[in-house]
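REQUEST FORM: STRUCTURE PREDICTION
Request ID: SP-0412
Submitted by: Lab K.M.
Chain count: 1
Length (residues): 231
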Amino acid sequence: MKLVKYLSLVFFVGVGVSAYSQTYPHNIVGYYNLMLYPGDNLIANQLDHGNNTLNAIFQPGVPEGATFTGWNPSSQQYLPTSVYDIKAGWSINYELGFGQGGLLHSPATFTNTFAGSVWSGFILENPFVPPLVTDSGTLLLSCYVPIAPATFYDVVGRDPQNGESVTLLDAVSQISTTTTFENGVWDNGTPTLNVGQSAFFNLEPVPEPAVYNLVGAGLLLLATVRKRVFK
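STATUS: Completed
RESULT:
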């Protein structure tokens, strides 16, 4: 049974964010502050800013020369690098939306404020039901909403399968840790994400519901035939 999940305490719930003079399409709006450290940071944008491009979601204060890249699940490699210029902004103005992750490399520590509206599928006081991730392979993912700790289920929309793994990055130490799910246990700790964090998920293909139905029907037919033969 899935527990009811609530927005993290670092998230302010209200009817508007006057500090940013924005109008958002949903009622639940707010912000969270994300500290970025020197080196690599696997980040997430968990609020809809209306325009979710890098130039829109990053506030003034990004260090000169910071870089950002996304992940291409088809080619299983990073996208071309976008470089930040204080005057011109990002050289490639990527979008970073719900459920996605990105790699930001910073030359210095800074804090960015992400502001906007919560994913429309989230309803206060109701159990959080995330969208199901149907892709397989190595994916850079985040939770759709700013809850912490966000579990595997909160990110992928289902429980883990044998052989699936999650690779987390500790931005402070710059150390990556991979934990793999085998026989109901994570071999290197249960993976969870903080607000504004993403991670690499190595996912196995999930059989379609129709496949399960066909298998079940086949087993039932086989049992019936055997019963008739040996009766």
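NOTES: The radius of gyration is 21 Å.
Reviewed by: T.R.
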